[in-house]
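Assess this one:

_____
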Amino acid sequence: MTSSPSGRRAGKSSLSAVASRRVERPAPLRQAVYDALLELIVSRTLAPGQHLVEAELAEYLGVSRQPVREALQRLQTDGWVDLRPAQGAFVHTPTEEEADQLLAVRSVLETYSAKLAAEHATTQDVKQLKRLQKAGEDALAAADAERLVQANANLHAAVAAIGRNKVLAEMIGLLDRRVRWYYTPIARPHSRDSWNEHAELIAAVADGDAERAGEVMRRHAEQTRQTYHNRKNIENN
């Protein structure tokens, strides 16, 4: 998904379709512009490798070019954007190694969070997980990739919160946007297996079986990692 004139036209069209996400003025402007651009990247409305034109982004967000320029500089510092001399800004294209390292760390953290969730879950917590599972299955039935990605993020966040370890939940939360970024292109091909694994996890949490919950989460995270690396074969088929 490299930059090209046709690619820029496609990007402009997709951005126009989400014009309702224009920045709200009451929020601190710099932060609001940063958050808006980051969400467009995470959702892949702005695709990896896409050229980012300040004037166009400013128009879409309803702001001047200065906060957009500042946001792009900050996004570069945070690893979301590449600023190339004499060429401009481009959405960062993650390497296989970058994705592998992040998903491996996610596996370690979430395996532990699943164990803690099984040890601490209440009846209400299990009901919440089942509601989130139902939301994911509904999105799967509707073939709605955006809802699938959000439902997946919501369920994993709930598991972390149920574990009652705030530090661990915060660390998992810091990874959330990048996990969503990597998960978006594989949401549909991976999702049936993914939601079956979620159901297994919820059953283990409901039974209070920490070891089984941890093992299910470990396998689940590893499957996501492998599916991400195999995504090109999936797309070609």
User: Anything to note?
Assistant: The two ends are 18 Å apart (CA to CA).
